[in-house]
Amino acid sequence: MNVRRYPMTRRKILLASARGFVIVALAGSFAGPRLALAIGPDEQQAELANAMGNAKVSLQQGFTASEREGQPISGKFEVENGKLQLSVYTAKEGKFFEVIVDHMTGNIAKVEPITEGEDLTHAKAQKAAMDRAKVKLADAAEKAKGIVGEALVVSAIPELKGDSPVAAVVLLAGKRFSTVSEPLS
């Protein structure tokens, strides 16, 4: 087979590169948000996994500490402004609160009312699930932890699946996250 080769001039190389860049840029603009979501959580998970080693208080202990501010309806460890934070949502007398529990001492560090936005929407849905639950979140988290073994409970978020309340419990074993769906009824 005889292949003819045509030398590419600098101009042709630049044009071909520019076309390739435009195609890559266009493809990136369509995949952009998905790509950002795919990268973001991995970085956040790595940061959270590294920070979790510093926690002296478990999520279950955080639930117990927050009970004086109402019924715990969800809880999670998160990295906020570069620092590990234990956040528990509670419900009391028709109102919702975010209780920040000190992850080193187990004392309540701050209580803020939840009055608007996505946080309020999530709190209402979590309360609806917990209203049908027969199992406390702390107990569900402990049971889920028993399935994996040597793991830390990172979060426990209730939801309704049909009419049945379940908790999505995220566990951290080493640097690996896993999620267990634990029935609350």
From TrEMBL:
Highest rank taxon of the organism: Bacteria
InterPro entries linked to this entry: TAT_signal
Name the UniProt record assigns to this protein: PepSY domain-containing protein
Lineage: Bacteria, Pseudomonadati, Pseudomonadota, Alphaproteobacteria, Hyphomicrobiales
